[in-house]
Amino acid sequence: MSGQVLSVFSAVLRKDLRRELRSREIFISSFLFSVILLMVIFYASKTSGVQLEAMSSGALWLCILFSGTIGLNRTHQSEMVNGCYRALILAPVEGGWLYLAKVCSNALLLIVMELLLLPLLVLFYHTDIGKNSGALLAALVLGTLAFTAVGTLVVVITANTRMKDVLFPVVQLPLVVPTLIAGVNATEAALQGKTADNWLQFLVAVNVVFLAAGFLLYDFLLEE
């Protein structure tokens, strides 16, 4: 990575993180939505007699799915309103590096939210997150990175359509299903103190595929 590429990459990453740290609008709304969703699933599971511990990993990844989708969509809309993408097109680097910076910033914000949700998962679902904390952290990081890799690419594809708010989740959901399945199974195995090497390896493969596709296509999509 050359000095110019590193400079542009870090500038875009700092800009996205600084903007969210100043406003906190997207992060707080996504976090509150996740808390409400966790409580709804908790009371629904409790009244139906389902074992709470069995619902913990699925509940967490539902929060990641819905809150992440809302956050990615609103982040992209703020860029469109402020005309930031016009400036990104003029950046003296390949569009793929801008894509990686966007993925990293979105993933970091989502991972912070997930870490804040883990104590609530322990409180509501009586889950022991210390049985295999390393595998749990790996599942969340790899799964979140794959989720944002897909979402950051799809949100640009649907940006110029009339029904972009509806079309984005419709297009994104089928693409993130493998990530959700692997993330739920890897997280469940980690919460039970088991190894989840197969699912983690699958998440690594998904990351390689979508990050490579995004890196190659992002420049063309920005120009479109």
Shape: globular
The average pLDDT is: 84
How many domains? The number is 1
Major sheet summary line = none
Count of DSSP H/I helices: 8
- Helix percent band: over 70%
- How many β-strand runs? 0
The SS-based structural class is mainly alpha
* Radius of gyration from the alpha-carbon trace, in angstroms: 18 Å
Proportion of residues in extended strands: under 5%
**Unreliably modeled segments:** none
Describe this structure in words.
It is a single chain. It is built from eight helices and no strands. It is mainly α.
Task: Give a brief outline of the structure.
The protein is mainly α and 224 residues long. The chain has 8 helices and no strands.
Annotation keywords:
single chain; 224 residues; mainly alpha; 8 helices
Note the topology.
Elements: H1 3-23, H2 25-48, H3 52-82, H4 84-89, H5 95-125, H6 133-157, H7 164-191, H8 197-223
Helix pairs in contact: 1-5, 2-3, 2-5, 3-5, 3-6, 3-7, 5-6, 5-8, 6-7, 6-8, 7-8
